[in-house]
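Below is one such protein, fold included:
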Amino acid sequence: MRGLIYGVALWIAGVSIGAADVTGNARVIDGDTIVIGELRIRLAGMDAPENDQTCQTEHGVNWRCGQWVTQELRAMLRGQTVYCEDLGDGGYGRMLGACKVDGRDLSAALVARGYAWVDPRFSQDLVGAEKAAAIEGLGLWAMSSLRPWDHRNQDRQTPSAPNPDCVIKGNISDNGRIYHLPHHQHYDATVINEDRGERWFCTTQAAERAGWRVARQ
């Protein structure tokens, strides 16, 4: 009875459901999660930056690349009908979906435009599209950024920056005052202790004016 009520609710919302698929207009939550009717769907095969994630341009400017990708996906799906095949459990109450728009695979399109990376937990069918985007420097490949899974792991392990636009870590060690950018080797392991005079910076220029130098790797 509960399943029947849920199916009727989706039908009223203009959503078509089958044994293993769902079709309708999609609402975008973030770069890899959409909602059709009341069903949350995790796009299969790829991983996009989190909404709170920032990236850094070649000039050291931090910007909200996670929100940018979310807006790009909204633009791609505006006015479109999305078809998603149910691939099972996508975690966090979501369905894992292989989704298409006009017969085009949505995950492949996002990876090809440089808006997302191949998710290492799933099939590697999109690796070719990812390599092509990387070679051309498209989207996220034109800047420095953590992969989403590293970003999530970092959030679990170390305190986040008090300002999401100021993620440069100014560390004080035996080697002096050194700042670490998100793509640096020791960034994740570096914990800022403001009681020791360590601090967060918004730009590399601010760090260097304050007397910090860039980490070698």
User: Anything to note?
Assistant: The chain has a mean pLDDT of 85. The longest helix spans residues 65-77.
